[in-house]
Design brief:
alpha+beta; 4-stranded antiparallel β-sheet; 6 strands; 3 helices
Length: 124
Amino acid sequence: MLLVCGFTVPDSDSAEFSAQATRAVELLTAQPGCVRAVIGRSADEPDQWAMTVEFTSVVAYRRAMSPFDVREHVIPFLSRGNASAYEILATATDGQADQRTSVVAADAATAGPRDASGPATPRA
């Protein structure tokens, strides 16, 4: 599971933002199942920042977001940007790719919480 968040930060706020981002990744990487976190700043547009955080699974991601200190500091921090969560389907190291099988259900785009025990009426 990969959390990707982009931020637009005026240069005058960059020192405070950097401190908040560092605190956010410290809190997240202290959680079980958090593999790594990276904070970056665009070399071309210095007001553009990005943060990526990798988790071992969706469950690890959800649990990492649960502790009080994470909800108090990380969630408000992430709300400053544009965050999305992604399923990791391939990684590569030293020229070797490792593909993963998707764990997203085939009907994920059409099924909802109301379908937890199965659809009330069969889908065509």
